[in-house]
Amino acid sequence: MQSLNEELITVNAQLDRKIVELAEASDDLQNLLEGNDIATIFLDTELRIKWFSPAIQSLFNLLDKDVGRSIANFTQKFSVGDLAGKATAAIERLTTSEQEVWADDGRCLVLRVFPYRSRDNRIVGAVATFIDVTDLKSTQAGIAEARDYAEAIVETIRDPLVALTGDFRVRSVNPAFHQTFGTSNSDTIGRSVYELADGRWDVPKLHTLLEEMLPSERQIDDYEIGLEDPRLGMRCMLLNARRVAEDDGRAEFILLAIEDVTDRRDADKHQELLVGELSHRVKNTLAVVQSIATQTLRHSTSLEIFQDAFQGRLQALAGANDAVIDGSWKGVTLRHIIERALRPFGVDQQVALAEGPQIDLRPQACLALTMILHELTTNAVKYGALSGSAGLVSIRWHISDVGKDRKITIDWTESDGPAVEPPSRRGQGTRFIERSTAYELKGKASVAFEPDGLRATLVFPWSAAIMPLARSPDASPEPGR
User: Fold this and answer.
1) Which of 27, 65, 202, 215 has its CA 20 to 30 A from that of 143?
2) pLDDT, tens digit (0-9, with 9 covering 90-100), for 366-390
3) Host H or E run for residue 140
4) Beta bridge partners of 405
5) Sequence-separated (6 or more) residues with CB below 8 Å from residue 21
6) Domain spanning 22-134 has what CATH number?
7) Which residues have CB under 8 Å from 405's CB, separation 6+?
8) How far is residue 133 CA from its own chain's centroid?
9) Cα(203)–Cα(217) distance, rounded to whole angstroms?
10) pTM (2 d.p.)
11) In Å, how far are 15, 25, 334, 337, 380 from 353, measured between CA atoms?
């Protein structure tokens, strides 16, 4: 009996410890389920309530005394989901199901129902949990909205954009990239950036940007590289590069924004040239006006003669400047200058322009030739072939090689006008033509008063008159009139 009592005492002590452990485990489980804010309910095989967490009361009107009652007797406060049906399926078919449901208070919940297994692996009911994913859904919606917004911007932007993986393979490109470089998704996505456009992107400066500069910097702005375009030649590209972290914060991709600034750079250079040329032309024009005024005054015998000659020359000078400006200071053809000088006199029907090579004149030569042609036309209208309806003027020009120098020759020939008598002294117009040709064109002018009409010949160097990079003198002639 004493031995038996000792064994009973030992067993009772062990049971007491087990009871304490079970109580502690029960308290731990109770606090866990009640403290994690997850609505949980345990059902037996008859769908009677065995236990529920306080959070379940927002989805069912349950009280502590409802334990033992069937869950089917209570109205659920969420839509779509059928807790009783899912619990039955979990018990009978041992299935686990998940479904998004919307609570009547607007929360989004994930309903998960799975079998309740005993320690000996028997199915003794079902467990249902409701996890609140409202904030997660809101965050996902915000991310989706931001992604759609970003994609819309990328799709709409006119500058080419390309996203690269960490090993410089193309991840995505926008439509502007395809339009600019003539590519498609099939020949860009997944390929190395250095392979794009038949290897034209494989340039040292791009290697430097991606492999040396960008790893140490998160962003690089206004990085200039040159790319060969088979259609347009060498193009100047301005790159803006960014290292962008993925959602997990570990992986990164590279975003390249590409801008073709070739035309802008050319325009800037042209603008700079225009400003310099304009400053130079203003100074020269003022000097020309002063020279015209001095020469006209020196050889005028009256104020009326001075006014008539001076106004005519200023109008011719203004017309020449208009022609230069219309040509954007890039040069004007000789034919256009001749036509522009003759236009104010309305003598088109009496002037024949022969076919000649197209010559692009620099602004200084345009102004000088306009003034010379104005003098010749004014003299012809007053005293020469254009003073009558039967008179004619023929204008020809050609290019010739004299030794190592290339010369431009312009011939002005009058016919069928009044009889011509050589003047007793050189007139104001003749001196003006000779001096303008000598000083402005670095050439020589000769004026001959022949019986059947005046003839003037201007000869000046090719290099002093043409625009730089002007077309070859062997170019196609300008059409005659």
Assistant:
1) 215
2) 878 887 887 888 788 778 888 888 8
3) helix 134-156
4) 402
5) none
6) 3.30.450.20
7) 461, 462
8) 43
9) 20
10) 0.40
11) 128, 114, 11, 12, 16
DSSP state of 354: P
From the number of C-beta atoms within 10 Å of its C-beta (0-12, 13-18, 19+), residue 299 rates as middle
Q: What is the CATH number of domain 157-260?
A: 3.30.450.20
Residue in the structure block whose two tokens are 């005492």: 9
430 three-state secondary structure = helix
Query: The tokens 């979990």 sit on which residue?
Result: 90
The four Cα atoms 105, 108, 113, 116 give a dihedral, to 10 degrees, of -70
Nearest to 54 by CA among 73, 74, 40: 40
Q: Where are the domains of the chain?
A: 22-134, 157-260, 283-478
Query: What tokens were used for 369?
Result: 């030739």
User: What digits encode the pLDDT tens for the residues 251-263?
Assistant: 678 888 888 888 7
Q: How wide is the angle at C-alpha 376 spanned by C-alphas 372 and 382, nearest 5°?
A: 145
Give start and end residues of each alpha helix (H) in 188-345.
196-199, 204-208, 262-298, 303-326, 334-342
Q: Shortest CA distance to 395 belongs to which of 375, 376, 417?
A: 376
The number of angstroms, rounded, from the C-alpha of 463 to the middle of its chain's C-alpha atoms is 40
